[in-house]
C-alpha cells in the first residue's frame, strides 16, 4: 500500500485507527473454543466487526509464535483473511526484527514475500545493514522503533550524546539516510505525550505508528495535538482496549462498538486539524 | 543448562565452538532434496558430524521463518533432535527478540516453554521491561546484543554520551542490574577485535557469544587474546564457514572436519590460557 493510498483510506473512513491483534487464548471468550481454529475464529470475528472503523490491523507475532506451529497457522490465515475480505486495510506485522544484513534479508523475505504483509516493525540497535534489506520492497513499509511506549524506553532511548542529541533522535535522523516518507514510519508510544513535538521536528512528514492508547494509558487527544501533521501522519493502535472489551458471546459486537467510539474521536481530531 | 555445566562441557571437549545453523535451502547440497524434510535432514547430518567438536548449536530463526510453517517445523524438529541425541549441547535460538513487557513474556514462553531451548538472543533497545521477562526461567539464558559484528554496529552502539560512555557500555552496565553471570550473556562480534578489552572491563565474568569468525572476517586468536577469562567465558560461533564448507554428497563430513579444525585451534587457546 502506498502512502497516498493510506492517506486516502484515512480521509474516506475518517479514522486512523489500527486494531492490534494481540490474540491471547487466555483472554478469549469461551464461545470461540467450540470452533476448529479458535485463534483464527476470534480474529475473524474481531476483524469483521471493526473493519469499517479502522485502516490497519497489527497482529503481534509474539502471541502467535507462543502457540508454535498452530499459532503461526492462525497468523497466516488471519493475514490471508484480511487480504481477501478487507483488501484496503494495511497489515502490520509487529515483530520487531533486525539482524545482520544477510539475516535481515531472510526476515524481509518471510514477511514481505512468504506472508505478503504490508509493513513490519524493525528494531534499530544493529544499524544500517540491519534495516535496509527491508526497504528493497516496492509498496512495503519499515516501521522503525524510535521512542517506545514502555517504561524501559527511558533506559537507552533517551541517552544524550555529547551534543545533547538523544538516541531516539539519532535513530530518526540517521534512518532518513536509508528510507523516506514512502517506505518508512516510526514507532512512537502514545505515553510519550509532548515528546511528539520533538519527534515532529526531525520527522515532520513521516507516518508514526502509535501504540499505548488505552491499556497503557496514552491519550489520543494529546497524541493528535502534538503529533498530527498535514496528512494526518498517525496510525494510532489499540489492542487490548478493543479486542478484550467483552469476554462474552457478544465480544465482536462490543469490540466493534469500541472501535467505532475511537473512530468518532478520531473524526473529531481530523476535523479540528482541517482534514 | 547452568553456567557450571557449560564450563564443564568446554573443559571436557576442549572446545567453545557454537555451530550456527543458518540453514538456507539455496546453499544446501542437492543430495538432501531427495529426502522428506530437506532442511531438517541437512541439520541432522551437520549436527551428528559436528557434535564431538562443539558445545552449542545456534539455529538462526530468520532462516526457518523464511520458509513459513514448514520452516518452523524443521526448526522444532532440529531442536528436539539435539535435545534427544546430544543433550549436553546448549541450544541458542538466535531470534533477537524484545518488546514491551507483556509481549516479551509471550516470546519467553515460546522459546523457553514451547520450544524448550536453553538461550535466546535479545535486543536491548526497549530497555528493562523488554528483557526481564526472559530472565524468569531457571536454567535459561538471555544473550543480550552489546556490540554486534556487522558494519551497522557503528551507527548507534558506539554513540558516546556526555560522559564518554558508549551505548554498548551502557547496555553492559545497566543490564547487570537485571541479570547476572548465571542467566545472562552478551553478543560481541568477533570483528570488534581489541574492543573485547573494553567489554571485559565492564563484564569480566560473563560469557560472550561471539559471531563473526570466518565468513565475516573475525580472528579467533584475537578474540581469545582480548576476550577470554578464567572460565573461558566465550562461545565462538561459526555458521557459513562450517555448514557450507562443501556442497557435495560429503558435506557433513567436510563440516565435521571444519569443526574439528576450529576445535583444535580452541584447544590451543585454552591451553595457552592455562585452562
UniProtKB/TrEMBL annotation, chains A, B:
It catalyses: orotidine 5'-phosphate + H(+) = UMP + CO2. Residues 16-255 form the Orotidine 5'-phosphate decarboxylase domain. Pathway: Pyrimidine metabolism; UMP biosynthesis via de novo pathway; UMP from orotate: step 2/2. The active site is at 96 (proton donor). GO terms for biological process: 'de novo' pyrimidine nucleobase biosynthetic process; 'de novo' UMP biosynthetic process. Keywords: Decarboxylase, Lyase, Pyrimidine biosynthesis. It holds the Pfam family OMPdecase. It is an enzyme of class 4 (lyase). Its EC number is 4.1.1.23. GO terms for molecular function: orotidine-5'-phosphate decarboxylase activity. Belongs to the OMP decarboxylase family. Type 2 subfamily. This is Orotidine 5'-phosphate decarboxylase. It comes from Prevotella communis. The lineage of its organism: Bacteria, Pseudomonadati, Bacteroidota, Bacteroidia, Bacteroidales. The gene is pyrF.
Amino acid at each position: 500500500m502506498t502512502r497516498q493510498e493510506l492517506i486516502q483510506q484515512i480521509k474516506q473512513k475518517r479514522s486512523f485507527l489500527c486494531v492490534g491483534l494481540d490474540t491471547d487464548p487466555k483472554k478469549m471468550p469461551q464461545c470461540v473454543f467450540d470452533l476448529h481454529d479458535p485463534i483464527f475464529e476470534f480474529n475473524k470475528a474481531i476483524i469483521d466487526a471493526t473493519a469499517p472503523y479502522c485502516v490497519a490491523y497489527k497482529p503481534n507475532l509474539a502471541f502467535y509464535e507462543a502457540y508454535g506451529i498452530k499459532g503461526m497457522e492462525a497468523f497466516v490465515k488471519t493475514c490471508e483473511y484480511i487480504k481477501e475480505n478487507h483488501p484496503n486495510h494495511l497489515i502490520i506485522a509487529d515483530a520487531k526484527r533486525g539482524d545482520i544484513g544477510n539475516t535481515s534479508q531472510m526476515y524481509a523475505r518471510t514477511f514481505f514475500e512468504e506472508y505478503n504483509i504490508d509493513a513490519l516493525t524493525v528494531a534499530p540497535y544493529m544499524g544500517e545493514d540491519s534495516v535496509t534489506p527491508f526497504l528493497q520492497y516496492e509498496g512495503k513499509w519499515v516501521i522503525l522503533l524510535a521512542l517506545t511506549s514502555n517504561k524501559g524506553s527511558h533506559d537507552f532511548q533517551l541517552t544524550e550524546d555529547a551534543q545533547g542529541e538523544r538516541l531516539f533522535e539519532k535513530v530518526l535522523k540517521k534512518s532518513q539516510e536509508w528510507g523516506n516518507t514512502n517506505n518508512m514510519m516510526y514507532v512512537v508510544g502514545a505515553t510519550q505525550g509532548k515528546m511528539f513535538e520533538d519527534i515532529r521536528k526531525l520527522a515532520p512528514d513521516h507516518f508514526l505508528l502509535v501504540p499505548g492508547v488505552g491499556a497503557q494509558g496514552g491519550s489520543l487527544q494529546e497524541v493528535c495535538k502534538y503529533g498530527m501533521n498535514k496528512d494526518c501522519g498517525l496510525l494510532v493502535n489499540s489492542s487490548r482496549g478493543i479486542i478484550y472489551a467483552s469476554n462474552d458471546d457478544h465480544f465482536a459486537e462490543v469490540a466493534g462498538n469500541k472501535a467505532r467510539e475511537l473512530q468518532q474521536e478520531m473524526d473529531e481530531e481530523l476535523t479540528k486539524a482541517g482534514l
